[in-house]
């Protein structure tokens, strides 16, 4: 279920595993990929739901592991002229020289390109698996409403369609974004709860209409949140700001987010607190998750003061895994459920390429920053009055009224999600929330229930000896996990097929009739 990066990398690995298995299934494994969006293999960030100008958050060198990067850059080289002709004009102008010279590694590239590349990979792998008689993969555009246990594994329901399957991969991305609390109509035209629903371009079109209808002096937008999506929105809306003379305020706890700047030449990281932990680890001492968090927080605080935080974060992110062997089982669990997500939040990196554009917008007064946390808003005439809280929790209404208020305030906790499918799975007791409430509890085989596999952001908050996940959003992380999940699924598929042929019960306890279908549903 779901056809984003998580499902696609699992599917690619699964097809490779089935092809390499010593015991080939006597008949092709049947795999159905279901997504509510008609665009397969791109998901939300790498397809039409993100804007044409949306870029990777890190340079290509940081975005992908080496082997995948080599394949992707070979594809970029082959497709360069077509891609540059269709790219955002500003991006093409800034980076044509590097692209033509094949210097991709230092670039923040349009995310849609990765979606296009993945689609090409998946299409080729599906055709190959079909012609080798290994697997038949079908695509279905439908919203999955519920999943029930059935004799043969699971019954997956999408409207009137019922799909019987031996196994399910739940790869539906992050829980929905948190809705902005409001007094009055939460569906008012100028209120945007989720930038990417149904897509960034549609959100911008709605905003253009809303601002265009306001008097020129009232064309003000507030974006609540200072995360990567907020920065993406600021940049994507620059055409509207210019055209309509509108102004945009970014509301974030510390005012301008510390990471909305580029690394300065000569910026060097100093990480004394992490160096001290490294020394203790080298002496054979065990560490705690809280100590790791505190060291990261201390080094980050000092580097912000010294103006070296971009370099510091770039050095800290790859250093974190080196501490994991020094954590006991209890501390690994504390990292997965509590401190890991806090570390990830501290070490946020946003697209550096966007900063030059942001700077120009700030200089000419089109974008400004407001320190505080969003509390609520209420419609006043055709505008909104916004209430914020300061660092001590004191609330006040902002003096300015906004024609539009846009949310970028992160994801819902799983246990109180309003997403219908997750809600149904939780309420039916088929799955339960993980320790951090950012994902679902899974075993070491990636199963939230026997035969129900999970991949992607919903893995967050799990700690096992061979599986430690506090955050599973980056493509790198997903690519490191997907082959492991695929192995578990392939084992089950081959067992199901073997049992099917022998007329034995399937491993999940369901009786698979001889000659019956043997499906894996991969979303
Ligand atoms: C704006 C943005 C930018 C990002 N940029 C980067 C980056 O530069 N680098 C990086 O490493 N990571 C980045 N990430 C993080 C990461 O790559 C994504 O979170 C990742 O794409 C997750 O992939 P996914 O397949 O799990 O989820 P998604 O991409 O969300 O795909 C899930 C799919 O499931 C479908 N679906 C959901 N529910 C149902 C249902 N009930 N029935 C049918 N279909 C359903 C959805 O339509 C969707 O297509 C970014 C994330 C976002 C949101």
UniProtKB/TrEMBL annotation:
The lineage of its organism: Bacteria, Bacillati, Actinomycetota, Actinomycetes, Mycobacteriales. It comes from Mycolicibacterium madagascariense. It comes from the Bacteria. This is FAD-dependent urate hydroxylase HpyO/Asp monooxygenase CreE-like FAD/NAD(P)-binding domain-containing protein. InterPro entries: FAD/NAD-bd_sf (IPR036188), HpyO/CreE_NAD-binding (IPR038732), L-asp_N-monooxygenase_NS-form (IPR052189). Residues 2-174 form the FAD-dependent urate hydroxylase HpyO/Asp monooxygenase CreE-like FAD/NAD(P)-binding domain. Pfam families: NAD_binding_9. PANTHER family: BLR0577 PROTEIN.
């Amino acid at each position: 279920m779901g056809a984003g990066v998580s499902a696609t990398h699992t599917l690619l690995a699964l097809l490779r595993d089935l092809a390499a298995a010593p015991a080939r299934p006597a008949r092709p494994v049947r795999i159905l990929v279901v997504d509510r969006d008609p665009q397969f293999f791109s998901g939300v960030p790498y397809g039409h739901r993100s804007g044409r100008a949306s870029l990777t958050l890190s340079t290509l060198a940081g975005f992908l592991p080496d082997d995948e990067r080599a394949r992707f850059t070979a594809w970029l080289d082959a497709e360069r002229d077509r891609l540059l002709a269709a790219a955002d004009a500003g991006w093409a102008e800034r980076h044509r020289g590097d692209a033509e010279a094949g210097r991709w590694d230092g670039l923040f590239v349009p995310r849609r390109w990765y979606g296009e590349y993945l689609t090409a990979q998946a299409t080729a792998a599906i055709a190959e698996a079909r012609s080798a008689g290994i697997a038949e993969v079908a695509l279905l555009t439908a919203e999955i409403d519920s999943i029930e246990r059935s004799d043969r594994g699971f019954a997956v329901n999408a409207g009137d369609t019922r799909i019987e399957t031996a196994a399910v991969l739940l790869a539906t991305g992050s829980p929905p974004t948190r809705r902005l609390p409001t007094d009055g109509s939460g569906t008012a035209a100028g209120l945007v709860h989720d930038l990417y629903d149904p897509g960034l371009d549609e959100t911008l079109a709605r905003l253009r209409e809303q601002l265009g209808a306001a008097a020129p002096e009232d064309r003000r937008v507030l974006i609540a949140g200072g995360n990567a999506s907020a920065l993406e929105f600021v940049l994507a809306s620059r055409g509207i700001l210019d055209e309509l003379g509108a102004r945009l305020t970014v509301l974030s706890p510390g005012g301008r987010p510390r990471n909305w700047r580029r690394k300065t030449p000569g910026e060097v990281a100093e990480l004394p607190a992490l160096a001290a932990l490294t020394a203790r680890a080298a002496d054979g001492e065990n560490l705690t998750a809280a100590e790791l968090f505190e060291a990261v927080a201390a080094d980050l605080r000092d580097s912000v003061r010294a103006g070296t935080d971009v370099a510091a974060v770039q050095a800290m992110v790859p250093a974190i895994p080196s501490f994991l062997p020094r954590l006991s089982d209890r501390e690994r669990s504390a990292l997965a459920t509590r401190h890991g997500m806090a570390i990830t939040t501290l070490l946020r990196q946003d697209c550096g390429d966007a900063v030059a554009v942001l700077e120009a917008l700030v200089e000419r007064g089109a974008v400004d920053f407001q320190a505080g946390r969003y509390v609520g808003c209420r419609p006043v005439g055709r505008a909104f009055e916004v209430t914020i809280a300061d660092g001590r929790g004191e609330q006040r209404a902002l003096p300015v009224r906004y024609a539009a208020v846009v949310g970028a305030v992160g994801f819902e906790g799983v246990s109180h999600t309003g997403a219908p499918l997750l809600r149904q799975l939780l309420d039916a007791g088929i799955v339960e929330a993980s320790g951090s409430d950012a994902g679902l509890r899974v075993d070491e085989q990636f199963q939230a229930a026997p035969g129900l596999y999970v991949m992607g952001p919903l893995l967050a908050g799990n700690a096992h000896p061979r599986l430690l996940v506090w955050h599973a959003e980056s493509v790198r992380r997903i690519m490191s996990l997907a082959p492991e999940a695929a192995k578990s699924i392939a084992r089950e598929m081959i067992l199901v097929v073997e049992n099917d042929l022998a007329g034995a019960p399937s491993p999940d306890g369901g009786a698979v009739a001889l000659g019956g279908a043997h499906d894996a549903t991969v979303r």
